[in-house]
């Protein structure tokens, strides 16, 4: 359908309806992944909860069913048939993929590699109708964050607040929706502007 077709404009209001879609979220038994899988469930998707802690997987699965009483798939691994379904891959990176700090060599390299993987896969899979993008969360309030840590970071965040799993989930939903059907190979920072204002610290 041409973007000039008026019907395309009306379809935007239904772009966040994921009824009948299957969404697999790796590491969705806690934190950001948990927020993402819950939002997709509310929006109608059949979700796949994955993780390494069986107790946490079952907890999230139970809560998802309470939010949206529909079929729920709980597995530890799955291979999506992306080409057949014209699916979407959304990687979760972090600011560590574009900035450096001492003492975290492996983490920075892994995230930078993930960002490049997104771009290369986007080129390779585009002819097959598969889009690949990355969402890069900033400082996010998750259970693992030490008490009081958000107050340390907030003065350096232009929007003056740490993020929450739902903030990241909304960005992922956008990237998975037809609203982003012309976006691939992109890195979306969801960080309140943190990377624009990374604090300068004395180098010693």
Automatic annotation (TrEMBL):
<dbReference type="Pfam" id="PF00106">
    <property type="entry name" value="adh_short"/>
</dbReference>
<dbReference type="InterPro" id="IPR036291">
    <property type="entry name" value="NAD(P)-bd_dom_sf"/>
</dbReference>
<protein>
    <submittedName>
        <fullName>Uncharacterized protein</fullName>
    </submittedName>
</protein>
<dbReference type="InterPro" id="IPR002347">
    <property type="entry name" value="SDR_fam"/>
</dbReference>
<dbReference type="Pfam" id="PF13561">
    <property type="entry name" value="adh_short_C2"/>
</dbReference>
